[in-house]
């Protein structure tokens, strides 16, 4: 991965629970870390892979970042005013240098 590919700022978020002033428990998303990333709409080849893995391949995006510990599918990505649920995190070649993150667009209310 070339450094020039990492030109988009993305923020990883994790779901947490809080109590409002009335004592009600609410779920909310909190920012965990913001990093530089390459952002690519999923190609036909990737869509075929997702379909073979029994994942509905519609409106998926590939995010590529430098390797980072702690990025998991229970997180989501905030990028360009849109949220993306993480579907799969891949440590490329197991070398701890680069992560490929497949994420699905979140519809309103997600």
Automatic annotation (TrEMBL):
Pfam families linked: Phage_HCP
Name of the protein this chain belongs to: SPP1 family predicted phage head-tail adaptor
